[in-house]
């Protein structure tokens, strides 16, 4: 309420005419005898109270009007009343403007609520940007003071200038959502074959400019996309020919198209003009529209033929360029087994004769470090005779030192060689206690005995330059080098050409998908961590750019484009406005598989006002990084596409709760995965996840056969589906030769099973082998250069792949491992109590290794009989008595 009128008169009698000052809501009335003067607006500055010996009220517009007789207290009260009046007058413009804006906002939100039209982020921000700017008087005023001097409507208008308008919009949208879900319940019940859940319907109605839907496996994301398209047409929000659905493969696009056609027909809605297509097909059309010529994709891009073509290019370059051949062989034979952190190196071999864990060399011995393996393999490939850790020619053992054994000895020239564990900073790892003192002692021995010593460091060797220096030192002593990359090996096999080609193709997918140039990669390298700025990395980049150029030349010669080119060129055309976006509603499936080029294409489609994006995906199923997928497109959705709500589909219609819980807890251990609390819609309890441990790898097919026979006995008359999911195609050899006729059994790789489901799932090769699960083929550090957001969590992508395998099951999952070769995933699941032991092994559960906590104790036989050892041997060398624990 505004303050009441307040009158001020002399406190004591003075000779002369009586006077009064009446302070009203918008003006002041000064009365002197029979004379009355009204002061308002700018003329209010004419009246003031001055304090001398006694207070005096002075009105400058009335000569001689010096009004006396106020006490100091009343004078202060009049001064305050005048100040507040002037403030009210000064705020009149703010109030008028704010009130008009308040009415505009109220009318706008009322209309949105009345017509059930979602207030989009774009519309909300337009309202926010139209908010009047407060005057200096309003900015300096205290709110409690405004409450005392202004009416409620005035306060409401002013409050809106500083209040959270976004909150009001959100509240309006929540009310619209509530009303739409209630008033259109029949639509949401009938638009799909099964009624939409509350989560699904909410995602349909939330018709904002940018909406991300994080969807759990089997949560019905396709239903959301189809229903949203139908809702948009049904409500008149978007015309059918302005709706685009983008999928990642032809099968998914065809499914979307069929579902749209069928469900729109069932609902009596027009579907003509709605387009469901793949990114690649859409990209081709955009390029054709921009250039007038529709490009043709190279026929050798799918089904693994891209790797075959790249391998053919490698062969051609090796035949035509001795320099390329030398660099390719150098990287493949010596540096392809990546290691950029010597402290994190783990042994991969055990030498029973020397009783030593280490790294297996081409010649067949076991050396102590990855750097020593590079040297040993280089010496072997150059035909250099050497002895590893030969006893020094002088007896130097004492109380503090055992007999000295240098790393390498070259008998033909009587030269010793020490390889020091020194990093790029010239220091050994911090955990190598006493290493510097030992190093000085060894160097002094050679000086005092006059023996010739060659020295290398870990940093030099992994930087490639160390081998060049070593070659100069050895040849100066008379060692002859005879490089032969095809020299027969008795020990560790060489990295295959196909493996290196796969790395190059993955690197290429990220480089081309992100539009990276050679200069951009060089800049990333210069700004990257020191351990990546090595000659090894530059050697790989030199090889890559040679192959990149040859790949591009092959495309141009045959007038083809590859998939990355299609997406990048289409994105360029859309971003530049060369091709306008003809769609107002764009929906993207499987956002977790989007590359940066795909993200740019989508962003280009959203140029201009009135555009809507719905992107659905599951970061827990992000398993296509090898094909150029960049998970940060999903995890940094707002950075790519703009602000908008993130919704979740957390009800799965596929897997029982027991399977869902195991899979969810497992994958969510990586803190970078988006949080979901997945609940199964299945009422009947499923069999969950069980584990079968077999004695040998050769036992796996028989174990699968017995499991299938047992299943067939349990489900007589049903003919359920069973998927045997391998980490690699090579796991197909684990399939039994015969399967029960009562079952529909198929082998798939986990990657190819993405998006599919089966009643029962068998994962047959959960071992710690090179091609086990998780795969021990580690990502090469050079991929960090091309990827925007690498994930350093251990086995990050393999964990997501395992999640995909588990969540294909509608009923239960059987995991199979081999005793003594259990996968680290098996150990983790057992430690978490997440799996049930299957078969006879259930009576003797395995025991976790007390030393490393990552392995299991398994029975072994040695020189002194049976014992228990860690299955991570030789990385962990814990042993115990066979009677102390059950090994399973």
Explain what you see.
With 888 residues, this protein is of the alpha/beta class. It has seven domains: 85 residues, PH-domain like; 80 residues, no CATH class; 203 residues, Rossmann fold (3-Layer(aba) Sandwich); 80 residues, no CATH class; 140 residues, 3-Layer(aba) Sandwich (Endonuclease, Chain A); 142 residues, P-loop containing nucleotide triphosphate hydrolases (Rossmann fold, 3-Layer(aba) Sandwich); 45 residues, no CATH class. It is built from 31 helices and 34 strands. The strands form nine sheets. The protein has a six-stranded parallel β-sheet, sandwiched between helices. Strands 27-26-28-29-25-30 form a six-stranded parallel β-sheet. Strand 32 and strand 33 form a beta hairpin. Helix 9 crosses helix 10. The protein starts with 5 loop residues before the first strand and ends in a 7-residue tail after the last strand.
Number of helical runs?
Answer: 31
Q: Which consecutive residue ranges, at least 5 long each, have pLDDT under 50? A: 884-888
Total beta strand runs: 34
Kindly report the name of the CATH homologous superfamily of the largest domain.
Answer: P-loop containing nucleotide triphosphate hydrolases
Query: What's the CATH class label of the largest domain?
Result: Alpha Beta
Distance between the termini: 82 Å
CATH hierarchy: architecture of the largest domain:
3-Layer(aba) Sandwich
**Count of individual domains:** 7
């Amino acid at each position: 309420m505004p303050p009441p009128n307040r009158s001020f008169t002399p406190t004591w009698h003075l000779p002369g005419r009586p006077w009064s000052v009446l302070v009203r809501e918008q003006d002041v009335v000064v009365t002197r005898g029979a004379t009355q003067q009204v002061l308002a607006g700018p003329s209010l500055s004419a009246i003031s109270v001055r304090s001398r010996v006694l207070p005096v009220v002075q009105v400058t517009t009335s000569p001689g009007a010096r009004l006396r007789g106020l006490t100091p207290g009343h004078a202060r009260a009049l001064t305050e009343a005048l100040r507040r009046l002037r403030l009210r007058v000064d705020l009149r413009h703010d109030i008028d403007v704010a009130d008009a804006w308040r009415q505009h906002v109220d009318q706008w939100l009322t209309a949105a609520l009345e017509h059930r039209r979602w207030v989009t982020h774009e519309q909300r921000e337009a309202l926010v940007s139209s908010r009047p700017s407060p005057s200096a008087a309003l900015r300096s005023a205290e709110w409690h003071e405004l409450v005392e001097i202004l009416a409620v409507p005035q306060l409401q208008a002013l409050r809106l200038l500083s209040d959270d308008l976004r909150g009001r919009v959100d509240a309006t949208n929540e009310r619209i959502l509530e009303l739409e879900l209630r008033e259109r319940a029949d639509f949401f019940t009938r638009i799909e074959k099964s009624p939409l859940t509350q989560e699904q319907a909410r995602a349909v109605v939330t018709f904002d400019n940018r909406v991300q839907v994080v969807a759990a496996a089997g949560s019905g994301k396709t239903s959301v996309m189809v229903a949203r398209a139908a809702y948009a047409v049904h409500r008149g929000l978007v015309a059918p020919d302005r709706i685009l659905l983008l999928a990642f493969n032809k099968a998914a696009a065809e499914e979307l198209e069929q579902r749209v056609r069928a469900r729109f027909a069932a609902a009596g809605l027009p579907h003509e003009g709605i387009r469901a297509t793949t990114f690649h097909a859409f990209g081709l059309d955009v390029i054709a529209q921009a250039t007038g010529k529709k490009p043709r994709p190279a026929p050798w891009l799918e089904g693994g033929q891209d790797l075959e073509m790249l391998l053919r290019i490698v062969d051609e370059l090796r035949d035509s360029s001795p320099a390329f051949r030398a660099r390719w062989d150098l990287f493949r034979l010596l540096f392809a087994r990546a290691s950029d952190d010597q402290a994190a190196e783990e042994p991969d071999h055990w030498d029973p004769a020397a009783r030593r864990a280490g790294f297996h060399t081409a010649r067949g011995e076991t050396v102590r470090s990855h750097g020593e393996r590079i040297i040993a393999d280089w010496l072997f490939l150059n035909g250099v005779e050497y002895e590893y850790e030969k006893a020094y020619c002088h007896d130097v053992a004492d109380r503090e030192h055992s007999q000295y054994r240098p790393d390498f000895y070259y008998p033909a020239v009587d030269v010793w060689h020490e390889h020091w564990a020194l990093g790029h900073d010239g220091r050994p790892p911090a955990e190598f206690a006493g290493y510097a003192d030992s190093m000085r002692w060894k160097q002094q021995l050679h000086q005092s005995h006059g023996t010739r010593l060659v020295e290398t460091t870990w940093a030099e060797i992994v930087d490639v330059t160390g081998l060049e220096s070593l070659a100069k030192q050895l040849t100066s002593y008379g060692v002859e080098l005879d490089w032969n990359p095809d020299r027969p090996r008795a020990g560790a096999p060489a990295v295959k050409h196909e493996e290196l080609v796969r790395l190059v193709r993955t690197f290429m997918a990220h480089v081309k998908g992100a539009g990276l140039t050679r200069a951009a990669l060089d800049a990333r390298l210069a700004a990257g961590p020191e351990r990546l700025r090595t000659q090894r990395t530059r050697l790989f980049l030199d090889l890559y750019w040679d192959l990149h150029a040859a790949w591009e030349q092959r495309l141009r010669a045959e007038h083809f484009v590859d998939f990355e080119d299609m997406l990048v060129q289409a994105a360029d055309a859309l971003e530049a406005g060369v091709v306008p976006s003809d769609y107002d509603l764009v929906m993207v499936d499987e956002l977790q598989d989007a590359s940066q080029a795909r993200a740019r294409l989508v962003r280009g489609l959203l140029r201009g006002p009135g555009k809507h994006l719905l992107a659905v995906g599951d970061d827990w199923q992000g398993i296509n990084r090898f094909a150029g997928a960049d998970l940060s497109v999903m995890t940094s959705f707002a950075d790519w596409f703009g602000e908008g709500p993130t919704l979740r589909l957390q009800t799965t219609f596929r897997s029982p709760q027991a399977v869902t819980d195991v899979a969810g807890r497992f994958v969510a251990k990586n803190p970078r995965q988006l949080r979901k609390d997945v609940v199964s819609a299945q009422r009947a309890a499923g069999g969950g996840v069980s584990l079968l441990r077999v004695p040998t790898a050769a036992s796996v097919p028989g174990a699968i056969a017995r499991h299938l026979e047992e299943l067939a006995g349990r489900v007589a008359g049903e003919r359920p589906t069973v998927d045997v999911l391998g980490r690699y195609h090579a796991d197909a050899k684990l399939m039994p030769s015969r399967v029960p006729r009562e079952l529909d059994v198929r082998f798939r790789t986990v990657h190819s099973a993405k998006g599919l489901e089966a009643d029962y799932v068998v994962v047959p090769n959960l071992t710690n082998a090179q091609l086990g699960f998780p795969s021990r083929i580690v990502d090469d550090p050079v991929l960090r250069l091309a990827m925007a957001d690498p994930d350093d969590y251990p086995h990050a992508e393999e964990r997501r792949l395992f999640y995909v395998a588990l969540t294909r099951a509608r009923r239960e999952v059987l995991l199979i491992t081999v005793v003594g070769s259990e996968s680290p995933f098996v150990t983790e699941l057992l430690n978490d109590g997440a799996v049930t032991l299957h078969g006879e092994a259930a009576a003797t559960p395995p025991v976790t290794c007390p030393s490393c906590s990552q392995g299991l104790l398994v029975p072994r036989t040695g020189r002194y009989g049976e014992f228990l050892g860690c299955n991570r041997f030789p990385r962990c060398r814990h042993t115990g008595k066979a009677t102390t624990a059950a090994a399973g």
